[in-house]
Amino acid sequence: MDLIGQWLSYPAPLDRILSIVGIELHWLILQYVLGLPLFIILSLLLYARSKDEKWHEMAKTMAKALGIIFAVGAASGTVSEFGLVLIWPNLLEAAGRYIFFPLYAEIFAFLIEITFIYFLVFGWRKIGVRGKLILVFLALVGAWLSGALIMSVNSYMVAPTGIQASYDPMTGWKYDKGYPKLLLVVPKEIVSVLDVNKLLSLGMEVLGERSEGVAVLLPSKIVSKLASESWSNVRVGDSVLSLVIKEEALGSVKDLLVKDVVDTILVNTVKSVGYTMVTFLSPVYAGSILHALGAAMTVTGFTIVGGYSLLLLRSKSDKRKVYYANGLRLGILLSLIFIAVQGLLFGHILGVEIASYNPEKLAAMEGTSNSIFSFSRSLGIEGIMSFIAYGSFEAKLPDYDSIPRDYCTLAGAPFDCRPPLMIHYLYYVKTGLSILLGLYALISSILIMRGNLSPILLKINVLTPIVAQIISFLGWAVREIGRKPWSIYGIMTVDVAHTANPGDPLSYGLIALILISVALALILAVWKLLYAPSVREV
Amino acid sequence: MIPQVYFIALVFGIHIVAVNLGMALATIVPLLKRKADLTGNERLDGIARGIFRIYAATYAIAGVMGTAFTVFLLSFYPEFIGVAGNITLLPFGIAILSILIHFLAIVLYYYGWDSFPRWAHLSSGILLAITAYTIPLGFRLVFAFLNTPSGLKIDGKPYIDALGALANPTFAPLYLKSVFGAITFGSLFISALLAYRMVKERGEESSQLYSITLKVAVVGTFIMLILGPWYSMSLISTPMKFNNIFRSFGWGLGGVETVDMSWLFLIKMILIVIQIYAILRLIFGSVDFKLSALATISAALTILTGEYLNMFSQYPYFLANLPIVADKIPEPWRTILGRSLSLENVSPLASDPTLFLVTALGIAILLIAIGYFIYETLFKGE
User: Fold this and answer.
1) Among A256, A273, A290, where does a domain finish?
2) Is B87 in the A-facing interface, judged by CB distances under 8 Å?
3) What is the 3-state secondary structure (H, E, C) of A443-507?
4) Which chain A positions have a beta carbon within 8 Å of B355's beta carbon?
5) Which residue of A79, A141, A228, A527 has the lowest C-beta tally within 10 Å?
6) Is residue A525 within 8 Å of B107, Cβ to Cβ?
7) Which residue of A has its CA nearest to B101?
8) How does DSSP assign B205-249, residue by residue?
9) Interchain contact B71–A (C-beta under 8 A)
10) Which chain A residues are closer than 8 Å to B380 by Cβ?
11) CA A406 – CA A243 distance, rounded (Å)
């Protein structure tokens, strides 16, 4: 099977690739903004306890790094924001309309970050240890709050609040019953013009009346069709809605835009859930935020390991070597702890959530298709994987080949609705690298704690941040690529989210090149400001 | 006017003043550095470095406020963002590319100050200066489009024809006014800084630079006196906006008038008079920090009132000429553009009073943070 071809066959391939470059650049940087404050706190606490100046120096170096990285992160964030508006304007419009609150509140989290990070950086010499601890704690709160808010929006896109998945691990796929379905609270005045029996025959379920309206589970097929019609400016009379509206009411509503009807229902649904809470109630939110923070901590930890290993390799001063070795010990121990927690706990929590709410993605991740070589099938671990995912050996992994190619919309989709199978390889490479990195962290930490600082060990250590970044990138790739062709699972597909006036390949290539140049400029800045002065001290 | 507009106006106002200052500083710093390199003048090099530090803080403030502005727009007017995102790839694309390259240039220029070969450092400085002007080029194209939608085509879907957009009668005066306004304000800002510095220590470099920046401000102010009326005259293509500003003075055109903004125009004129008075006194008198500060503040407020005048005089429309062009737009776009381009069509979920309270609190913190930045960079720097 042509896996790359399948991935490119979804709508807007160039725009998706450019988004990957832009957002990955932002994430590559953000991990340090999330991770460094915690490492600074630990260094300062060690300094406060031991009065050993080396911990203070370490904290200062990390604070300096945080200042530089935050500036680049803010710039890459602005570019990503504009990029999203221009490439996925309809998605952004929907986000701004229905799930705006976390994006809105993030401005203030960003403000907390910028204020306290620069208080810390500019005021380092004038503030005592307690003051620094307070400032860096507030910077941490700002950064984590910002991460928590943005991750809630992303989680909503992965599994919107009220989504009912299409798979039962004991009985199999439920497409014949209209799943996946989405919870909607339909205002009573709209219910009064609908032919409810017809909707029931199409798979809608009525959950009951609420003060705001009638709560229903509507098949995603219908929801995504309505989303498509909304952003194509279709009127009710020409819409699938006309098939489920009572004949006597059709005349008075046929000239309304579908978008207005859908908007009324969605605003009502969000109001009934609570506009401040709707994204945080996504069923994959807990695992997502933990996994994102875990990735940030792990990457930061291994970057500290790599940095101090490089300095140890270049250092000729015994005094400096003692300092660098201490930094290396702190880095490797924390990296070991973080990668273990990330893999065994946070990864598992997220995996279980994905299994329950994104079964199509799980099927692709596990490669349960006969058209590809599957690692889980070849290794004979499908039973173990289903036990890990569903907590029962009786449970079965979802079968990819049984997913209908057109399950994501009514009247046939012009593209394959199944997620791209290439994520099977991305996922297994990611998992394999994670296990190897975890084992390496265990061995390395034992050797370092025993005082072994051999050049080979240090040279391998230098590579660990790159591996950690690759793993982190692959994790996001599985999450985002694996959601295709959906932009918001069960609601909006990429063709609907996409701009009506896309750019040409040349301008996209130029933007990608400049994004990569920004990343290189950051590396240059870190090299000049952090690494070069340290080497000069050697 | 509805409260959401005031929130947007507040963050936009701070953003635009910081952007204007940044444009001038991004031009002046590479020029000063080049002169310092050619003459081997280390004191001038030090002054250039100090100004670059201020520029970095200005850039940060402009960035934060710009982000707040975009997020407020997205939250209060999502449908406008949806429409704008679909049709403004060209102008916003120019701006985004420029922002990216500009940031790259800042990093290279800052970290290459003492370590790059001269030609490489100069190149990054030139890039810094050029992109400072291409960023507003993209944004001003959008602003001109929001006066009158030149280049808008609807062929099944709306899109912008590049040449048509550039031919917008309000684009050239608006863009040039921004550029020269920024240079005038930035020159006055530096002259005020140098006047403050000369109160403590009178150096030859400071004195020379003070004199040059004042002269630049004089020329800039003179050019603005031509560009201002040009932009006003170009607004004849936007009768509602023209009427809202000028009808109270008896210069109205035929057509609608929505809000009387003549009072703001009057304030702007008074500020310009104060600015000219202060500059003339400075040119013919001795170094005077208070007078320099007055000229700088009046220039900043002139920019602010000018932007507010431009923004509020088209209330309640994002697109000032919407009432005129509406009947030429086919359905369903007429309906869609009609409501998405209305400033009174606020997203219902973002109309919660508690949200306003939280926003007001957040903005207060935002302003305190700016105060901190200004304190750190102006009063605690070298």
Assistant:
1) A273
2) yes
3) HHHHHHHCCCCCHHHHHHHHHHHHHHHHHHHHHHHHHHHCCCCEEECCCEEHHHHCCCCCCCHHH
4) 104
5) A527
6) yes
7) A514
8) HHHHHHHHHHHHHHHHHHHHHHHHHHHHHHGGGSHHHHHHHHGGG
9) yes
10) 122
11) 20
What's the rounded Cα separation, in Å, for the pair A328 and A306?
A: 8
Pair A95, A168: CB distance under 8 Å:
no
Burial class (CB in 10 A: 0-12, 13-18, 19+), A140: buried
Q: Of A73, A516, A501, which is closest to residue B93 (Cα–Cα)?
A: A501
As a whole number of angstroms, the distance between CA A40 and CA A63 comes to 7
Q: Do A267 and B348 touch (CB under 8 A)?
A: yes
Distance between first and last Cα of chain B: 44
Of B24-33, B212-221, B333-342, which range is least confident? B333-342
Amino acid at position A396, single letter: K
d(CA A61, nearest CA chain B) in Å:
17
CB A78, CB A86: distance < 8 Å = no
Instruction: Give the mean pLDDT of A231-248.
Output: 94
Residue range of the domain that includes A177: 167-273
CB B106 within 8 A of CB B114: no
Tens digit of pLDDT for each residue in A283-337?
Answer: 999 999 999 999 999 999 999 999 999 999 998 888 889 999 999 999 999 999 9
User: Per the CB < 8 Å rule, is B78 touching A94?
Assistant: yes
* 8 Å CB contact of A78 and B333: no
Q: For residues A335 and A371, state if they share a domain.
A: yes
Q: How many residues are listed for chain B in this entry?
A: 382
Cβ distance of A85 and B92 shorter than 8 Å:
yes
Distance set, CA B261 to CA A226, B309, B313 (Å): 43, 7, 6
Q: Residue A411: is its pLDDT beyond 80?
A: no
Residues B372 and A101: their CA atoms lie apart, in Å, by 27
Contact: A511, B88; criterion CB under 8 Å: no
- Residue A83 shares a structural domain with residue A227: no
Of all residues in chain A, the one with the smallest CA distance to B65 is: A107
Residue written as token pair 């702007």: B268
Q: Residue A57: which of A45, A47, A72, A67 has the closest Cα?
A: A47
> What is the Cα–Cα distance from A470 to A467, expressed in whole angstroms?
5
Residue A538 has pLDDT above 80, yes or no: no
Structure tokens that stand for B340 in this block? 């998405």
pLDDT (average), residues B316-340: 90
- Are residue A141 and residue A262 in the same domain, yes or no? no
Does residue B70 register a pLDDT over 60?
Answer: yes
Local confidence band at B379 (pLDDT 50, 70, 90 cut-offs):
low
Please identify which residue in the block is written with the tokens 């941040």: A465
Residues across chain A: 538
pLDDT band at A71 (very low <50, low <70, confident <90, very high): confident
Question: Which residues, 6 or more positions from B200, have their beta carbon under 8 angstroms from its beta carbon?
Answer: none
Contact by Cβ (8 Å): B274, B298? yes
> What is the third-level CATH fold of B3-379?
Formate dehydrogenase/DMSO reductase fold (1.20.1630)
Scanning A162-284, the segments in alpha helix (DSSP H) are: 188-191, 196-201, 220-230, 247-253, 258-273
Contacts of B93 in chain A (CB under 8 A): 86, 503, 507
* Cα separation, A26 vs A206, whole angstroms: 43
ipTM entry: 0.89
Count of domains observed in chain A: 2
φ/ψ of A194, rounded to 5, equals -90, 145
Query: Do A266 and A298 reside in the same domain of the chain?
Result: no
Q: Of A225, A244, A273, which one is at a domain's C-terminal end?
A: A273
CA distance A451 to chain B (A): 37
- Summarised one tens digit per residue, pLDDT across range B109-132 is 988 888 888 998 999 999 999 999
